[in-house]
Design brief:
By secondary structure, this protein is of the alpha/beta class. Helices cover 29% and strands 24% of the residues. The protein is built from 15 helices and 22 strands. The protein has helices spanning 60-66, 78-86, 112-118, 138-143, 155-164, 170-185, 200-206, 223-228, 278-290, 302-315, 332-338, 348-359, 370-375, 393-402, 419-424; strands at 3-10, 16-22, 25-30, 40-43, 48-51, 53-58, 70-71, 96-101, 124-128, 133-136, 152-154, 189-194, 213-219, 236-238, 241-249, 295-299, 319-323, 340-344, 380-382, 441-444, 461-466, 469-473. Strands 6, 12, 13, 14, 15, 16, 17, 18 and 19 form a 9-stranded mixed β-sheet that branches. Strands 1, 2, 3, 4, 5, 20, 21 and 22 form an 8-stranded mixed β-sheet that branches. The protein has a 5-stranded mixed β-sheet with strand order 7-8-9-10-11, with helices on both faces. Helix 1 crosses helix 6 and helix 9 (278-290) packs across helix 10 (302-315). The longest helix has 16 residues, at 170-185. The relative contact order is 0.15.
Amino acid sequence: MGLLLRDVTIGFTGRRADVRVEGGRVTAVEPTGLPGDGAEVVDGRGGTLLPGLVDAHAHLLQWASSRRRVPLATARSATHAAELIASADATPGVLLQGANFHPALWPDRPDKALLDRALPGQPVALFSNDLHTLWLSSAAMRMVNVDHPTGVFVEDQCMALTATLPKPSTEVTDRWVLEATEAAAARGVTTIADYEYADTVTDWRRRATPATRIRCVVARFLLDETIARGLRTGDPVGERLTVGPLKIFMDGSLNTRTAYCHDHYPDSAYDGELLAPLDELLPVLRGAVAGGIGLALHAIGDRANTLALDAFEALGVGGRVEHAQLLAPGDLPRFARLGVVAGVQPAHQPDDRDAADHHWAGRTDRAFAYRALHDAGATLEFGSDAPVAPLDPWDGIASAVSRTDDDRPGWHPEQALTLATAVAASTGGDATVREGGPADLVLVGRDITGLPPSELRDLPILATVLGGDLTHRA
């Protein structure tokens, strides 16, 4: 019989209305007082109704797994991280996992010897917050049949070994992932782009129906197979499932100091790591485009971003740059001119401000430069990169507006966005609900117009609607 959202505030218009949903569409936006006519009624009490929130970049299996790992974000050094993991409950012989350590400013370096001393004989795997570093104990390395002088693996080695580490059964991890989509729906999310480094199409087809729509991003090693299957970006592959773009790494990350930059890192002649030279990359990208697969290029350092934009210019197609953290000034207008979306993760900025001040000293006026991108006409789409940051768009929105997540003043406040712009970047570009539009909606428990940024992270969500169905109700 449909759904009636009674007494809601429509986006940032200040207009109070009743909204009727039937057949997966918004069928009426009228002054308050619409008859129920047998519809399920949700009382908005003046709260804000928005289009459903989109997390445009997450790693869902890793996010679901990370929710069960030992948190190490407070570790002040490699030694401290080893002490924290040693205090956790461990089952002898069973892999103990920790997550979210930030090594960029540590006074010492991770090493297998620290883990071996803290937990002799125990297999231990620790994942950095940016997922670009994997730190293993000797026992954990024996599990995956590798040897290494330090037990620290970065970039391609990190990704490959992460995929081979022992995991719970598929039945268990599938349940974890589906629970993660339910948690996302409880924060107003209706769509997630899953950048998991795996066969996401096969994995999602196996699972039960998720609580959000899923864009199944294509890993590079599966490009040829995806094209051979006849799949193209945007194709439906199951209930609430579509094929996403191809993900290609141009460089590494800031905290691993592998982001590829025009200038050297401090006290070295090292400028980061280019993972995909352009002359080798272009034939791969041309093959993807010819096969109907969209492009999402990971670029964090300014030189990597220049090369990513060079690739789009050479191909004559638009696409996505994922992260776009450090940008050369001349590249800002190229995003709009080339039709390239900046897929950014605002929650990374307060997490990485200290590392950026150290490793990108003198350049941070163009780091996480969201206002400059917006003013240059670029399309911004927000994601979390979960588990690097929580899968909660309100966390990213708050960071984009305030440029801080603690008691310190906003970092480079000139790059802050307005709340309306930040919300639009989290809803696919439009913050208004219209008659005839899709019924992917979120009802926030407050009127967010003029709300202080400090209150955004804890907003109550009254209801989330996906295709006209309630996926969350407070």
